[in-house]
Amino acid sequence: MIELFTFWFTYFSKSSLTTIAFIIGIFVALTTSLGSLLSLFSKKIPSWGIDLSLSFAAGVMLVASFTSLILPAIEISNSFLPTAIGILLGLLLMYLVDRLLPHEHFVKGYEGPKELQNKLKTAWLLTFAMVIHNFPEGLAIGTVLNLELKKGLITALAIGIQDLPEGIVVSLPLATLKKKSLEPFLLGLLSGLVEFVSVLTGVHFFKNFPFLLPYGLSLAGGAMLFVTVKEVIPEIYNKQKNEPIISLGFFLGFYVMLFLDSIRF
Prior knowledge:
This protein is an all-alpha fold. The protein has helices at 2-13, 17-39, 47-77, 80-100, 122-147, 149-177, 183-208, 213-237, 243-261, and strands spanning 103-104, 110-111.
């Protein structure tokens, strides 16, 4: 695995940042879309499988928030203040998105403006939930790529890995509801496209405004922390069962991201 990663690192290091961002954006978009596609062929995922997938994603996102985003922001700015401001902005941004954008969770159900609860189809509510998860992830990848190629690739690899089961979990209710129609896959594809766009947005914005990079890194970190603490963790602990599986999944994701971040060349 390390040898393969080294090969891609060497390959990417000879390419332009725009080309790198484009390829990585396609990669993370495809992992989300593939997860949605696999949901069409899954008659049923046991509850422990759902909890394992979501807790794995939580572990990856929690470590990535610090090792790839928040701590590097402190390091390059030599000050805590820009990082603190960026985290606060990320939290506020995702809070507003969470309050204003209607969305449906697998366990928690509907969240968002009450007046829209019965006006939007379940398909779009589930898609909005995927967008809330994927936007900060793509933004984080694009922002980190401006900081360091290696960290950007590692972050993209880890997020891509956890996007696969996450895509299955989010799309499965819709696949069951729609009797295995293509709609869950197409909406998963749309969600993956959002992640692709957010990767390119992060890359190009902070390439043109590098002095804002510490704020961008910590903003993405704060946004990912919000999604992890507010969206993912309550989702897996809401049922109050499968706690050993949840802990296993969380620390598995934790160790995977930590291991990837420890790779040296």
